[in-house]
Design a protein that fits this description.
about 130 residues; 5 helices; mainly alpha; single chain
Length: about 130
């Protein structure tokens, strides 16, 4: 991945607006190619979107679903960034490096649990009616 670190670190350098999208897209592709958890979340996002279409959720419910799915992806992306920065700083085991990685991963775990709770609250009534 091309970094252009000299240009990007120069004070006052703003770079091309379109180039910033290119870098962001490169980061997204990296995460999609390398991170197992993001693939897991993509799989479940597809299931949730399919269920949402099937039960015809409301606009407000769609907003909640989109925010939860988007939030989960954002947290996983930030988690990946933190893990890679820690790996850049030290290749050897260090207790603080472990804590940084574990805490970043715990943010993803907490949000995933919250997402499941939101899913149960959101979809529960639809499936309770279907099974009566």
């Amino acid at each position: 991945m091309r970094m252009d670190s000299q240009d990007r670190n120069r004070k006052g350098y703003r770079g091309s607006f379109t180039r910033s999208f290119f870098y962001a897209f490169e980061g997204l592709l990296f995460v999609l190619r390398t991170e197992r958890n993001i693939k897991f979340h993509l799989f479940f996002a597809a299931i949730v979107i399919s269920m949402s279409l099937y039960v015809q959720i409301t606009k407000v419910e769609w907003l909640v679903v989109i925010l939860v799915i988007g939030g989960m992806f954002v947290i996983e992306i930030i988690n990946t960034a933190i893990e890679n920065v820690v790996d850049l700083v030290t290749e050897e085991y260090h207790p603080l490096a472990k804590i940084a990685k574990d805490v970043a991963a715990s943010a993803a775990l907490v949000f995933a649990c919250i997402s499941v709770i939101i899913g149960v609250i959101l979809f529960g009534p639809y499936f309770m009616v279907a099974f009566k």
